[in-house]
Design a protein that fits this description.
The strands form four sheets. Strands 1, 2, 5, 6, 7 and 8 form a six-stranded antiparallel sheet that branches. Strands 11, 12, 15, 16, 17 and 18 form a six-stranded antiparallel sheet that branches. The chain has a four-stranded antiparallel sheet with strand order 3-4-9-10, with no helix packed on it. The protein is about 5% helix and about 40% strand. It is mainly beta. The chain starts with a helix and ends with a strand. The protein is built from one helix and 20 strands.
Length: about 210
């Protein structure tokens, strides 16, 4: 009995200013996998920036542990999370968003994130890491960024695609880390692993950093 009470006290112990010890965003932006959110202790909310693109019906849910055991949707569309509620639709369509969730009040916000420093309307990474499908990149500090895993085939490579339809894309003909319009595939030379990739849409300079 004493051990049971002790466990109950642990389970009810406050998890800091954000209410939970972790929070994840799962939706169409990541094929319903988990994107970890960050606790802003000053504001007492969980927050994350994500890009919704590639599907007609954008939606998401908040998942505490990333295993669906404790998750929040919204049944009444009142911007308050409901346990195991309906998927939350992103009515404004494709784009970059800042999403927040208050772990105590369950109130959430979806705000279009401004990216004035990037000139392209969007940018996608396409290569052997995703079967030449589209991995949306995010504009941070004037550069497009993405973290991806290259595994499997020895000839790992990729290109940058603005609209995700190959109508305007960049490779590299000279191997000088400057994108060329409709250029050759960019090769991954450091073997399989996780890579951070950036692209400056003004200078067309890019970086490939193994992490």
């Amino acid at each position: 009995m004493e051990m049971y009470r002790f466990r109950q006290m642990i389970a009810r112990r406050p998890a800091g200013p954000c209410g939970f010890r972790s929070m994840n965003l799962r939706g169409t932006h990541n094929a319903w996998n988990s994107t970890p959110m960050t606790c802003s202790a000053d504001a007492g909310v969980w927050e994350v920036k994500v890009t919704f693109s590639g599907t007609a019906n954008h939606a998401f849910k908040f998942d505490v542990h990333g295993d669906w055991n404790t998750n929040y949707g919204d049944n009444e569309r009142d911007d308050i999370g409901d346990p195991f509620g309906n998927d939350i639709a992103v009515s404004a369509g494709a784009g970059q968003y800042e999403v927040t969730f208050n772990g105590r009040s369950r109130a959430y916000t979806i705000i279009t994130a401004e990216t004035p420093a990037c000139r392209f309307p969007s940018l996608k990474l396409r290569g052997t890491h995703n079967g030449w499908d589209v991995t949306p990149m995010t504009c941070n500090d004037g550069k497009w960024q993405a973290n991806v895993e290259f595994r499997g085939a020895p000839d790992k490579r990729f290109k940058f695609d603005i609209h995700g339809d190959w109508s305007d894309n960049y490779g590299d003909n000279e191997g000088d880390f400057v994108g060329d319009s409709f250029g050759l595939d960019i090769m991954i030379t450091q073997g399989p692993g996780s890579y951070g990739i950036t692209f400056d849409d003004v200078s067309r300079a890019y970086t490939v950093t193994k992490q």
